[in-house]
Specification:
This protein has 275 residues and is α+β, with helices and mostly antiparallel strands. The chain folds into two domains: 155 residues, Ribosomal Protein S5, domain 2 (2-Layer Sandwich); 103 residues, Alpha-Beta Plaits. 27% of the residues lie in helices and 28% in strands. The protein is built from nine helices and ten strands. The strands form two sheets. Strands 1, 2, 3, 4, 5 and 6 form a six-stranded mixed β-sheet that branches. A four-stranded antiparallel β-sheet has the order 8-9-7-10, with helices on one face. Helix 2 crosses helix 3 and helix 7 packs across helix 8. It starts with a strand and ends in a 12-residue tail after the last strand.
């Protein structure tokens, strides 16, 4: 049995800079990997079936872990049955990329188990078919993202801690994108500009999420007492950077919803994975 860590991410900002003819939105963002992680266990079986335990709320055909194995089957030199068990710690529908991370973890591990022989770039390209956030977890490095999130420039970020709150609501990404008030023409910028003044960089979805979901607004107002709160992805999680003067225990204790303290990662634990 192979047991591996599947980390999550924060979007340190998220700008929508345009819209393509096919309806997809152009964006700019920074992906920061964090140590809030799911754990996946892979056990090879004597059958040819893939079974998944621990995520029963998601239909198997829609499960990104299962879909990742299906994508790899045409490349398998040594295919076989798998039982995959997931220990879920990353909240779902949170903007933390848990599902995308699980898919990327599966691609990395099963690529080796089935001797598919694919390199990181090839796995990332396959991962894009599962979701725009999957390639960042395949590469396992912090990145400046453009396009629909697939054009990645790897960057070094300072080690930090964050307080993350998960409001008790499930945000519809489709609903947020459909809002006429969504800013879709933020001026494109550069990583060096972010380094000079990160406070100028916001999440274009934040005002809409706060308006449509009172739970998000409550979490933002709570964290804004202690720093500059931000929405990650299309939510629902919000976060604030930890500073020396914060009493993190008290902040977590009085949080209006589920709360976490997380550490930034320089790279994914999977980056050097070998069977």
């Amino acid at each position: 049995m192979i047991r591996v860590q599947s980390p999550s991410k924060l979007n340190l900002f998220l700008h929508i800079t345009g819209r393509r003819e096919n309806g997809y939105h152009e964006l700019q963002s920074i992906f920061q990997l964090i140590d809030l992680s799911d754990w996946l266990e892979f056990t090879q079986t004597d059958t040819q079936d893939v079974s998944i335990d621990g995520l029963n709320s998601v239909d198997l055909q829609q499960n990104l872990i299962f879909r990742a194995t299906e994508i790899l089957k045409p490349y398998a030199q040594q295919p076989g049955g798998l039982h995959i068990r997931i220990e879920k710690n990353i909240p779902m529908g949170a903007g933390l990329g848990g599902g995308s991370s699980n898919a990327a973890t599966t691609l990395i591990v099963v690529n080796q188990l089935w001797k598919c022989g694919l390199n990181t770039e090839q796995l990332a390209e396959l991962g894009l078919r599962l979701g725009a956030d999957v390639p960042i977890f395949v590469h396992g490095r912090n990145a400046w993202a453009e396009g629909i999130g697939e054009h990645l420039t790897f960057i070094d970020l300072d080690q930090k801690q964050y307080i993350v709150l998960k409001p008790d609501c499930f945000i519809s990404t489709q609903l947020l994108f459909s809002q006429k008030t969504l800013t879709r023409d933020t001026k494109p910028t550069k990583f060096c500009a972010y380094q000079l003044k990160p406070s100028d960089f916001i999440n274009n979805f934040e005002p809409i999420a706060r308006s449509l979901y009172p739970e998000v607004d409550e979490a933002m107002r709570y964290l804004n007492q202690f720093g500059t709160a931000k929405l990650t992805g299309t939510g629902a999680c919000v976060f604030v950077e930890v500073t020396e003067d914060m009493n993190t225990d008290e902040i977590l204790k009085h949080s209006p919803c589920k709360s976490y303290i997380v550490n930034s990662l320089k790279e994914s634990p999977l980056i050097h994975f070998k069977v």
